[in-house]
Structure formats: C-alpha cells, structure tokens
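Sanity check

After download, print the first record. It should look like this:
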Amino acid sequence: MYIRKHIHWRVIWRHSWKDVLLFLTYDLLLAVLYGPLHWHWLDVPWQLVSIVGVAVSFYVGFKNSSSYSRFSEARQLWGGIVNRSRSWTMLVLGQPTW
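Expected structure tokens:
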C-alpha cells in the first residue's frame, strides 16, 4: 500500500517498465508491418472501435450505478441495525432492576 500524498515517477516506472516495453515492441511491430511493408489488412475501421467504445462505456456506467445502489442499500441496512441496537440498549439500561 502506498500512503504518500504524491507518487514519484520512479515508483510508477519501477512497477510498469515491463508493460511499457511490451506495448512499445508491439506498437513498433505493427507500425513496421503496416507502413513500410504495406500490410494494409491490419487496418481497423474506426466505426467499429467507436461502437465498441460506446458499448463498453454504457456497460461500465451501469455496473458502477448498480454497485453504488447496492452499497447505499447496505449502508442503510447497517444504519438501521445500529439505530435499533442503540434504542434497545437505551431501553434495557433505562429500565429499573427490581
């Protein structure tokens, strides 16, 4: 767990240099295949990418909304349990013992 206020770029680089190197190699390979070697079958239509992006954004948005609703419901239930236990405790402690 990182508890400082700001993350230094060296910390990020230490944990992500392998991924950066992998994606840089992959991107350079695609650029060489598409550009100088003219492998144009690698071309992806932007309409497909935009449609998939919109669908994913709707999916993530609804998942966030449903998870917030579940969290809110659980918080309300927990608040009810706490309030009832406090009321019961005040009722028990307020009764005289004979």
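If your output differs, re-run the checksum step. Summary of this record's structure: Helices lie at 9-34, 46-94.
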